[in-house]
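Go through this chain for my students:
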Amino acid sequence: MTRPGHDLSELDWIPYSPLVELHDARLTRFGIRVLLKRDDLIHPLLPGNKWRKLKHNLTRAAALGHDTLLTFGGAYSNHVRAVAAAGDRFGFRTIGVIRGEEHLPLNDVLTFATGCGMRLTYLDRTTYRTKHTTAVTEELRRCFGSFYLLPEGGSNDLAVRGCAELPAEIDVPFDIICCPVGTGGTLAGIAAGLASDQRALGFSVLKGGRFLADDVARLQMDAYGRTFTNWEIDHGFHAGGYAKRSADLEVFIADFADRHGILLDWIYAAKMMRGIFTLAEQGAFPPQSVIVAVITGPVEKVP
């Protein structure tokens, strides 16, 4: 049963994110349409794929009688921020296990998280690499008691099922749907939700992220007992690795902002959009293709 204090009524009314066409001569000259699925506008505190990944996990946690959520992340993790906001909104205590040592004053992300009531604890980087092991989990339960465990980045079978709901929201026929790939959960779910004549293209934000294909397949197997063959991952646009950016990426972000009034986040969305534009110029997409690009995280309007 749901414990007193868990108000999950908002789970079902959080609106679909809007679909907005991107008008850009660099794409139309190749006969390509790109539509932005603005998941960054789903909810002011729970934007993008973070909400989709959390939705069914919150329901499961409440059904199992948990009143505490515990998760992992770096000091600038949007996932940690989202878990803190969700816990505050839906009546869960939250614990954030942060990679590395404590640094004071806290940055904006962790300040927000603690303001939502999240309790922070820290693991040295060596121990953090073993966070998925039983030994680490048992030690955390000894310290904090019972909790519902959310993996780093939020990707698990329930997260995949939440992301699989996205394609059905799109009321325009399309051929390809694109998303950034960090842990693989969003791509795994989106691909599972596609029609038979559609495919998904992920853009890795990690350098050396070849392992992500195995992670996507594992997540699909966990969620559905099968894998899907309608997806692939491009590894050419990580701009140096996670949370890194190149001079070329900076130029692309500035130019995109000038043209469209949207300042793309450089960790995820900008890498995907640069990949789409580059592949279009290289002729990788058939003429008349309709491409949906999922903006999975927060972006800013240009003043």
Remarks:
- The two ends are 47 Å apart (CA to CA).
